[in-house]
């Protein structure tokens, strides 16, 4: 592989609500860790867009395409103004084909489980979310689930690539081919084919019915590793996994696109605490760390992650959403101090 560039430019969408506060925290921490990133900041003014227009400008989308990396805070799509949803625009325009969510138990964060270390890789472009629904006649609706060979191969390939790059042991394809014989059957066939191609990689492969996966995740999540699945299953299972480790406020998320990656916090804009310096920046920060690993900036990602984990484990400085009383600034300062100690 080619040597990694020494300096990166990343498109930053701070977003709405608490977005700017948590983005500021990420920028300060990255700065203190000497991460070689220049931010190309784009403020999306969702109220400035005319009805029917896209909320994200072509210029902002071009910036992600050009830089190859973007980081996105939470954004609110105004409802009922005739805009294409923000997420839909980003997904279509950037070709975001896989959503990746690593969920690891965080020591010191009180949850029912302590040994979770799973990654959901969700197909992000088709399946049950193709948007093809129609009324056959009043009282009867059909909704089309579309599964293609291209999209299935691509997302399964990515799951293996991720597993190899991140030293994982196993990829599990999650499906319901016992009932959806043709659609999930095709997905499963593709997963098997990709697994066959990677049989010398040392990554194990297994298949699991979606209902069995749900049961296993709540009874013994330690038995699962990387999971790859069609859109709807991935939507549900990725939130389930976030719940296993303490919720969306702690869970990173990354979207793989054609020639680019968009890391994002999947929680909302938290309108109830905006401007109060109370937001928890962990989810956005952890998403940004996924991006660093993808850029081969692992030492910096490792240092920041260890500092976050240590601060959370010590439990002295933490934000209100996870039972503390500290401000966003105090938590950010604590992580920066911890980095100086651990370095
Ligand atoms: P949106 O419409 O943007 O989804 P929402 O009203 O659904 O906003 P969420 O952002 O989804 O609100 O948040 C739900 C709850 O979780 C709120 O009480 C919010 O304050 C809290 N919350 C969400 N994210 C964070 C965070 N990063 N730090 C602290 N609290 C958070
Ligand atoms: Mg919400």
From TrEMBL:
GO terms for cellular component: mitochondrion. One of its GO terms (biological process) is isocitrate metabolic process. This is Isocitrate dehydrogenase [NAD] catalytic subunit 5, mitochondrial. Residues 9-335 form the Isopropylmalate dehydrogenase-like domain. It holds the Pfam family Iso_dh. Keywords: Magnesium, Metal-binding, NAD, Oxidoreductase, Transit peptide. It comes from Gracilariopsis chorda. Belongs to the isocitrate and isopropylmalate dehydrogenases family. It comes from the Eukaryota. Gene3D superfamilies: Isopropylmalate Dehydrogenase. GO terms for molecular function: isocitrate dehydrogenase (NAD+) activity; magnesium ion binding; NAD binding.
